[in-house]
Design brief:
It is built from seven helices and seven strands. Strand 1 (7-11), helix 1 (16-27) and strand 2 (31-36) form a beta-alpha-beta unit. The protein has a seven-stranded parallel β-sheet with strand order 3-2-1-4-5-6-7, with helices on both faces. Helix content is 43%, strand content 15%. It is α/β, with parallel strands linked by helices.
């Protein structure tokens, strides 16, 4: 019960890594607040976890007012915010740089980078004023660690999240706020499927990688929990890759 009595905010918490992370925190005693734009999906996730351990708030992390209200709502309802996991992200349309639509580029950067910035801005401000806390940003092994053809917007956004994480960590470690990132590789979620690819085809593709498989969402969740826990109390500004050796 590493997080007994802790309040944890998870953006993009309705699905995939965010949902698995919410389950993991709840099992360890935390109250988890899931944030996202899909109210029905959030409510379903809360029901699955159990209302005694979970809550949700509808928020758009690309909107400054909504990001601020998200943190205010969590603190107002639960009296504190101890851990924030900034997981909301999109892959965006695939294609070579010369063919990327400007609107599609803007959307990926808005969600994946500006959304993390706006969320951190308000999460850290609250934590700084209330004794500290821990922030874990979900980046990717595509970006600072590796690249893939056709994913320029996604790679650029995630590389920027890695740098933003390190800079924020230096800015706020003296405030008692630890900021780190986790960079998953292919994980058992729809986002890791190539256009038109089935899970079986993905499994076949992943056999050529060092680990020979995709990660389970629970494996990524456990890494996030470690970074947020007291066991990682001296880990600051780190970007921990979880990709089975793909970018080793």
């Amino acid at each position: 019960m590493r997080f007994d009595g802790k309040i944890v905010l998870i953006t993009g918490g309705a699905r995939g890594i965010g949902r698995a992370t919410a389950h993991a925190f709840a099992r360890e005693g935390a109250t988890v607040v899931l944030a996202g734009r899909d109210a029905a999906a959030l409510a379903e996730a809360v029901k699955e976890i159990g209302s005694e351990r979970a809550d949700h708030v509808v928020a758009d992390v690309t909107d400054p007012a909504s990001a601020a209200a998200m943190v205010e709502t969590v603190a107002g309802r639960h009296g504190a915010l101890h851990v924030a996991v900034n997981n909301a992200g999109i892959l965006g349309a695939a294609g070579p740089v010369a063919d990327i639509d400007t609107a599609a580029w803007d959307e990926v950067l808005a969600v994946n980078l500006t959304g993390v910035f706006l969320s951190m801005k308000h999460e850290i401000a609250h934590m700084r004023a209330h004794g500290g806390g821990a922030v874990v940003n979900v980046s990717s092994n595509i970006g600072a660690h590796g690249r893939r053809p056709g994913l320029a917007a996604y790679a650029a956004s995630k590389a920027a999240v890695s740098v933003l994480t390190r800079t924020a960590a230096l800015d706020h470690v003296a405030d008692g706020v630890r900021v780190n990132a986790v960079s998953p590789g292919a994980t058992d979620t729809p986002m890791s499927l190539l256009p038109g690819e089935t899970p079986a085809e993905r499994a076949e593709r992943m056999r050529a990688t060092p680990s020979g498989r995709v990660a389970d969402t629970a494996e990524v969740a456990e890494t996030i929990l470690w970074l947020a826990s007291d066991a990682a109390s001296h880990v600051v500004g780190h970007d921990l890759v979880v990709d089975g050796g793909v970018t080793a």
